[in-house]
Amino acid sequence: MSEPTTVAPAPAPRAGWRQQIDMPVLMAFLCIVLLLLLGSLYSPNFLSPQYLLQQLKVGAFLGIIATGMMFVILIGQIDLSVPWTVAVGGMMASLCAAYGVAGEVFAIPFGILCGVALGLVNGLVVAYLRVPSMIITLAVNSVAQGLMIFMSGGFAPQDSASPAMRFLAAGTLIPYVPNAVLVWAATGLIAMFFLGRTTFGRAIYGIGNKEAAAYLSGVPTQRVIVGAFALCGGLAAFGGVLLAGYAGKASQGMGDTYLLPAIAAVVLGGTSILGGRGKYLGTIAGAILITLLQSILSVMQIAEFARQIIYGTLIVLMLLLYGRDKGMR
User: Fold this and answer.
1) What confidence score (pLDDT) does residue 17 get?
2) What is the pLDDT of residues 253-289, one digit of tens each?
3) CA–CA dist 262, 65 (Å, integer)
4) Residue-wise burial string across 110-142, b where 16 or more C-beta atoms lie within 10 A, e elsewhere
5) Longest CA pairwise span in the chain (Å)
6) How many CA atoms within 13 Å lie on the side-chain side of 295?
């Protein structure tokens, strides 16, 4: 009797090239090209290397702040304390720099640590007391604002940025390449490593998809949430340190214009506002896109209130396009 022949299972079909492409990221880069072409109609210098490098330099500050925001959004939370966390980083670093040589040495880490402390408060309350992140971060933002106004007596801070802060934000280590761009590149590489190559990064995505499932699978969800908020606070403060170095000194409310753009940069890059999905490459594209959009709106002399309306509208549109499928999973 002949043995029965076995039929080998058919190989799984390969994903088509359309399925392999991250459409939100692709759309963000296509919008960048469109804005560049649109800007060239207003000014022939819009496509010059000098102007593009200047836009990358300006976008680096937003990109660093948006990096921290991405960690929090990926876990399905939000951080509304970013504006005054940015101000705390810049003001405290400048204050530290006023205390001689030792102060200048510790100015940058001190400013960052102040932001980390604010992020830890946010994370601990969200993770252990289960207070909604929107409420606690808004409260921390208000507390930080009050502390900074009290510290400065209600007047503009008189302390100047340290030489190291100025060098990182406005100097050039490589000819024609601003240091701020290099700092953003280094920050981005570290963020990509954390998100893609570490247990912490996998836990971030797991919590964003389903916190209860991540907890049952052994993920220390509370510590990961605290870590995400601490990173967001530290990077927001680092952005403030760089902004103070770029301007030469810190100022009250220096971070007020970065909250919506930071959220928009993350969401425009394809990160789900509901958490669990997103790539850092998209955040890079989103930060560049927002920076170019700001530049074009400035050239067109669009008022600040209209810019905020545009940012909010973009966030709503991206939520409608890429956020609804999260609720179906």
Assistant:
1) 47
2) 899 989 988 998 998 888 988 888 899 999 999 999 9
3) 6
4) bbbbbbbebbbbbbbbbbeeeeebeebbebbbe
5) 98
6) 26
Q: For helices 163-170 and 179-197, what crossing angle results, to 10°?
A: 80
Is the CB of residue 255 less than 8 Å from the CB of residue 240?
Answer: yes
Label each residue of the chain as H, E or C: CCCCCCCCCCCCCCCCHHHHCCHHHHHHHHHHHHHHHHHHHHCHHHHCHHHHHHHHHHHHHHHHHHHHHHHHHHCCCCCCCHHHHHHHHHHHHHHHHCCHHHHHHHHHHHHHHHHHHHHHHHHHHHHHCCCCHHHHHHHHHHHHHHHHHHHHCCCCCCCECCHHHHHHHHCCCECCECHHHHHHHHHHHHHHHHHHHCHHHHHHHHHHHCHHHHHHCCCCHHHHHHHHHHHHHHHHHHHHHHHHHHHCECCCCCCHHHHHHHHHHHHHCCCCCCCCCCCHHHHHHHHHHHHHHHHHHHHCCCCHHHHHHHHHHHHHHHHHHHCHHHHHC
pTM, two decimals, is 0.89
Spell out the SS3 assignment of 257-289.
HHHHHHHHHHHHCCCCCCCCCCCHHHHHHHHHH
Confidence of residue 1 (pLDDT cuts 50, 70, 90): very low
User: Quick one: tokens of 25?
Assistant: 């990221």
